[in-house]
Design goal:
Shape: rod-shaped
Order of helices and strands: HEEEEEEHHEHE
Distance between the termini: 35 Å
Strand content: 25-35%
Largest sheet: 5 strands, antiparallel
Number of helices: 4
C-alpha cells in the first residue's frame, strides 16, 4: 500500500488547528446631550464589561500542497482572524455600569455598545502580531509532524519546502511567546 502525505488530510489538519483566544474588555459608550432638551441636557454614559472569543488560523482555500516523490511543497498564507464574537453569556445586568446622572440607557444603546465592542475586539486581535505568529507557527508544526509521521510509517524522509504568501514569512520568522493562548 502506497502511503504518502495527503493534501486533503493536511488541509483538514489546518482547519482544526485554529487558536481560540479569550479577551476580557470594557467598552465605553458616551453620547452628549442625549436628552435633547436645552434646559435639561443630560449625557448618556455607561460602560460594558464583556468577554470575547477570537478565532485565529489560516485560510485553507489559499493553501496549495503538492507531493512529488519525497518532496512536499506547501504554499501557506499568513494566519489571520477567522472569527470574532462577544460571549453573550458574560453579559448580565452587572455587565452594564451606568454613570451617575446618565440619561436612560435603552436596548438600542446597549446594542450599539455591543457592536463597537466586537469591532474593538477584532481590531485588537488583527494587530496582535505575536498571536498571529503563534497561530501560523502552530499550523506549520502540525503539518510538519504529520508529514514526518507518514514518512516514519513507510521508511521515507520527506523534505518540506514552504512557499509563503504575503506576510506569512514574517510570521514564520517571528519567535513568538504568546502567553494568552488557550487551545
Amino acid at each position: 500500500k502506497n502511503v504518502k502525505p495527503e493534501p486533503s488530510q493536511m488541509k483538514a489538519i489546518c482547519e482544526l488547528a485554529v487558536m481560540k483566544c479569550y479577551y476580557h474588555n470594557v467598552a465605553k459608550y458616551k453620547e452628549e446631550n442625549a436628552t435633547g432638551m436645552l434646559w435639561w441636557e443630560k449625557d448618556r454614559h455607561f460602560w460594558m464589561e464583556y468577554a470575547g472569543i477570537v478565532t485565529i488560523g489560516v485560510d485553507t482555500s489559499l493553501m496549495n500542497i503538492e507531493v512529488e516523490d519525497e518532496n512536499v511543497t506547501i504554499t501557506i498564507p499568513p494566519a489571520k482572524v477567522l472569527g470574532c464574537k462577544v460571549d453573550e453569556t458574560t453579559l448580565t445586568e452587572d455587565s452594564f455600569i451606568v454613570a451617575q446622572n446618565s440619561a436612560k440607557v435603552e436596548a438600542e444603546h446597549q446594542t450599539e455598545a455591543f457592536k463597537s465592542a466586537k469591532d474593538k475586539l477584532e481590531s485588537e486581535a488583527k494587530s496582535n502580531f505575536t498571536l498571529l505568529a503563534a497561530a501560523q507557527q502552530r499550523v506549520q508544526k502540525l503539518l510538519e509532524d504529520y508529514v514526518t509521521n507518514i514518512g516514519n510509517s513507510v521508511g521515507k524522509t520527506y523534505k518540506i519546502k514552504w512557499i509563503y504568501l504575503g506576510g506569512a514569512e514574517e510570521l514564520n520568522n517571528a519567535k513568538s511567546s504568546a502567553s494568552t493562548i488557550s487551545e
